[in-house]
Amino acid sequence: MVRRTGGMDARAKWEKPDPKKDLPSPLEQFGHWAKRRLGINVAIWQRTVNTILLLSILYMLMNPTAQTVIAPSTDLDPSGRTIAWALTEQWLKDEPLGANARIISWNGSKTIRLKNGSDGVKATANTLIVDSDLGWWKVTATVRDTDGQLAGWPAVERIGIPDTVSPNGGDDWTGMLGSLQPSQALTTLTGQWATALMGDDSAALTVLMTDPDPNASYRSLGLGHVENTSIEKAAYLDAGRVDRNNATSDRALIRVTITLKGRGEQAVQTQFTYDLLTSNPDGTPRILAWGAPGAGPDLKDYMNRLPANAIASDTTGTDDDTAADGTSKDGSR
Questions:
Q1: Which residue among 53, 74, 228, 235 is least crowded, i.e. fewest CB within 10 A of its CB?
Q2: pTM above the 0.70 mark?
């Protein structure tokens, strides 16, 4: 028979418990304790915290913090600019570049290092643009910073200017869907706009613009009477309601040349060119904005309206009794 001792089988071998194998880890013990005492499931909280940390890391990777960029400072009155301008004006009085020479602009400067014996000398080379009867010039005057004297006589370079002012209108806009054949309604509206813009009736221009802002106003230029308005080119914008199949939309750009009557009996005609942003070009068109040639893609709706509280006063730049084309109010010249 097998003898039992204290209710235990004598043949059973007793082994000391191994805490590393038989007992839960300290973290598991803390988890059980927290769940019993505080009602907190540590495992769930660990997963939640890990998830939040992972999402935070992903967000920072996808949205890096913008680096602080220190904008370079601009010296609006660099050393030697005023002196170079004044000394160049004195030099131009002797007509080295021909008669009627005048400084048009200051186009920047460059610091240079010179040497006078064993001493270093700091100087500034200032570039000036000059117009004279002999043409356009880039004049560089180098001024010593120590005493404001010229380091030598100015150096000049001729600026090439085209002989004629005839524009080259062969360039097209970018981002267009296709060319547009202007309708009669669009052509008529363009002529009305040109007349209102170049004339001296700001109220008429404001009415023509049909701005949805009831307080909006536009200012006419008062330059004269329009003799002719021509649409040089027109194209559908890739914006608004687009019809991809037909390469059309309800937005279009047009290039317009305006010809004004000459002022006085011997005066020649003058011309101006604008890019116009229009809506509904194939229906009842509207002009939304205008700008310089090439600016078409950047035009914004009603960008030409006057600022709030601005007064659209009408001035022609001539005497009160004389129109812009030289004709008096009673029709005589």
A1: 74
A2: no
